[in-house]
Amino acid sequence: MVGKVVASNRRARHEYFILETLEAGIVLQGSEIKSIRAGQISLAEAYVRIDGKEAWLEDAHIAPYEQANIFNHEPLRPRKLLLHSSEIRKLWNTVRQKGVAIIPLSVYINNGRAKVEIAIAKGKKLYDKRDEIAKRDSQREIARHMSDR
User: Fold this and answer.
1) Is 36 helix (H, G, I), strand (E, B) or coil?
2) Of 5, 29, 116, 140, whose CB count within 10 A is highest?
């Protein structure tokens, strides 16, 4: 991942175990890329859907660009992801397993083009989340005691 990170899905790493990550391009309209460059994108409810030989970014909210007037875009429309067919086939085979999902982690601008970092992820149980929070708190306590010395 190289470039300016425009949006990130902060909840993803809390809700899922990240198994593998990929980079994909996004097919956008003109007003959408302008909104993304302005940071007007939310990945909070977004996910990736595979149908046949194509991958789609669903429920990613890109706010309408104010200067686009009548040529504006639909904020929640599905957007096609640009991946190789072998990558799509691999994603399709892994997503058929129970508890595995494909989620976007971040959107960034690389050489003038919007890219999305997607991840193959497995959902965490509530006790996994509690364990992670307890470990993080204990590490923070240890660091605090070490800095006091």
Assistant:
1) helix
2) 116
- The CATH number covering residue 73 comes to 2.40.280.10
Domain count, the chain: 1
97-141 per-position pLDDT tens digit = 788 889 999 999 988 888 999 999 888 888 778 888 898 899 998
Q: Is the pLDDT of residue 1 over 70?
A: no
> Could you give the CA distance from residue 109 to residue 3 in angstroms, rounded to a whole number?
5
What are 29-75's pLDDT values in tens digits?
A: 888 888 888 888 888 888 899 987 899 999 888 888 777 677 777 77
Q: Which of 103, 101, 63 is nearest to 81 (CA)?
A: 103
Q: Which residue has the tokens 């904020």?
A: 75
The contacts of residue 19 (CB under 8 Å, 6+ apart) are: 94, 100, 119, 120, 121, 122
Indicate the pTM of the whole model: 0.79
149 located within any domain: no
Structural domain boundaries, residue 109: 4-124
**135 part of a folded domain:** no
- Please state, in angstroms and rounded to a whole number, the distance separating the CA atoms of residues 139 and 130: 14
